[in-house]
Structure formats: structure tokens, C-alpha cells
TrEMBL record:
InterPro entries: Arsenite_MeTrfase-like (IPR026669), SAM-dependent_MTases_sf (IPR029063). It comes from Noccaea caerulescens. This is Cyclopropane-fatty-acyl-phospholipid synthase. GO terms for molecular function: methyltransferase activity.
Length: 83
């Protein structure tokens, strides 16, 4: 519902695709999951602080809950290295 058809490939899939179809090589890998966790928490906070303005634009409670779930689910996934 958030990104229809979206894909978040694993590092293994990205490196495999690079190796099979290009001459690109990886020189450095850094896990930024904990940073993205913090970013998602900030986005959630900002989003919920503006809930009234969002609803005034015509969005309903289901829309709010969907995004709140997305922020929480992704934040947990990045914090636990699941995503």
C-alpha cells in the first residue's frame, strides 16, 4: 500500500546483479540500518504531530494508521537488521 511493486533487495542480490551484468565493484560496505531506524522514528513523530493537518487535507484514519504501521514496521526491521 505504501510502495506498490517496490523491492528492497538484499546486499547479496545487489552484488550478484553487479557481478553478472557490469564491471562495477564494491570497495566499502556500511550498515546504515540504525541510522535509518532513527530517521523513520523522526518521520513518524513529525507525521503524527501533523495528523490534524493531514486529515484536513481529506485523508482518513485508515491512511494515518497505514503510515504509522509502515514507520513502525520499517523502523523495527532496520533496528533488528531484518530489513
Amino acid at each position: 500500500y505504501i510502495f506498490p511493486g517496490g523491492c528492497l533487495p538484499s546486499l547479496a542480490r545487489v552484488t550478484s546483479a553487479m557481478a553478472s551484468s557490469s564491471k562495477l565493484c564494491i570497495e566499502n560496505v556500511e550498515n546504515i540500518g540504525i541510522h535509518y531506524y532513527k530517521t523513520l522514528r523522526c518521520w513518524r513523530k513529525n507525521f503524527l504531530e501533523r495528523q490534524k493537518q493531514i486529515m484536513d487535507l481529506g485523508f482518513d484514519d485508515k491512511f494515518i494508521r497505514t503510515w504509522e504501521y509502515y514507520f513502525d514496521y520499517c523502523a523495527a526491521g532496520f533496528k533488528t537488521l531484518t530489513l
